[in-house]
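Page 42, continued from yesterday. The earlier attempt failed because a stray header line got pasted into the input along with the sequence. Redoing it now with the clean sequence only.
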Amino acid sequence: MAKVQKEKRRKPKYGILSCVGYMYKMMWKYARGLVFVGIFTVPVSLAMSALALYVPSITLRYLEKSRYFSTVGLIILGLGLAEILLSLADKRIEIETVLSRHYIQGQMEYDLIRRWRDRDCFLEYDPEVQQLDERARPSHNATMFPLNFAAMVSAVLKFFLFGSIISLVNPWIILLLIGSSVVGYLASAWVRKREYETQDRLNIINKKINYLAFHIARNLKYGKDIRLYNFREYLALLGRRLLKDGKAERERLQRRELVSRLISFLAVLFRDGVAYAFLISKAVAGEIDAAQFVLYFSAVTQMADFVSKILGMWSGICAGAMRISDYRENLEVPDRMNRGQGIPLPEGAFSIEFRNVTFKYPQGEKNVLENISFKIEAGEKLALVGLNGAGKTTMTKLMCGLLLPTEGEVLLDGHPVGEYNRDELYTLFGLVPQNYNLLPVSIAQNIACTDEDDDIDSDRLAMCIRRAGLEDKIAALPGGAATPLNRQINPEGTEFSGGEAQKLLLARLLYRGPKCIILDEPTAALDPIAEDRMYRRYSEITGDSGICPYATSIFISHRLASTRFCDRIFLLDGSEIAETGTHEELMAANKKYRELFELQSRYYREDLETVSQDIEGLGGC
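This time it went through. Structure tokens are written below.
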């Protein structure tokens, strides 16, 4: 219940006028024609309404009094021609608006995505930022809401034009029209406010539905698990529950909308009944003739529509301003890392120190790391081992500034991470994660991590490909290193196997030449022998003759035997460093590390014995 009350108190950060000014800046930046569209909308719309008002009355008047067909025909022809020209101008304005609004929305979405890519990585875990992300996407109505001001100005001018005509009959009709329209507006404003308050709940439900419908349902890697373990019914049930929850939220909004429309209908029924009864009584009494009756009748009908449009447009402006306020607020989520002037980067390998570091994810129930202190010397090779969930990956992200400690501080070369410029800081590290992504661009661009071929050092690229063991693979491709990856996007491209992808990641790291190498179980899918070979290859590149000589290196593996070559090993257990030392020292200590090592060794020995028995059995056959 407390959560619902909090949502009801949520208000936009920026006001309407501020958001209107912001959107006009966007229009001027991306589609200047829309700014002028707003200017031309007023006279065109006003002229069209004036014609619609006076044409029937004028036509009827000349039909009653004129004796010549040519006179009536010329008047009708002139009025018709004016209406055609105005309709063409109105259509041109409409086309320009439709074309431009798509372009502006696309540009604003691109700006939003670019900001998401650039902001601090750890903000993705913040629940408040996640909510802002859900609210921030601009819609057609939100991007175009400033144009409603031009339309509203036009409607106000029409109101005075038609109101001056109605006032000739009875000024009380104007008050009747305004009053009924205000009642309808208040009802719709109530619905709009409730819809804004429940937006976060709907966003959460829609996010879950989209994850099931697009991420799981369309990703083939989930297919075998869903079939083998019979998750179809469970996922279908979960989807139905989410749809039911979403339906319930929307039904509440629809019920409110129904009440709003019923109130508006009753107000309009009362308004039109009174106004038309009054005009009919005037006509029956002979106080107005047929042409006047048509003029006043049309004025009453259209003026009621103008009042409703004015209030409706204002409602649309308020709703659009709310969306733009959310958009701007998302763009302005502040970074916590230093994006300004930083201290000079270390010239060579550097030390990494944790001082009383505690870390907990924003939505986590307990600390992942608690009061951790240690120092990795410059050029040292360190292994992080431990059970899943021990905090190994979190620790490496803290080292390179992808996360910030909840308490304590991380120091590089004796200086807190925050003293370095964030983007310069990232150049110090070569991170190979367990879950990696190869981009749908050329092999060369994947290795050099640039979108411009001219920025690639071809000699360095060739050397890195050779050292990574990809030379034969790439030489066999028609396009060589220019061959794109991902055949779904590039039909003429190629695909890499798991082992080839590992070699590409090695080539990427070699090309970068970082001063600190972090390997976060990138070889988890490989067998123990292949993993050991790959880790030793990474170790060699930090040797005296390696491409990254004396680089500080952190290796993470769930296979303890793969990290025996490291200078020190940290065993993480229960949010703290339980043991530290070389492999021999930890084995001699006869504690948790030795227990885990012997368990894994026995498992691998049993596998080898089974394989040997199978081979002997086949030989006996």
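Notes: The beta strands are 352-359, 369-376, 381-386, 407-412, 415-416, 429-432, 516-520, 552-556, 568-573, 576-581.
Reminder to self: strip header lines before submitting.
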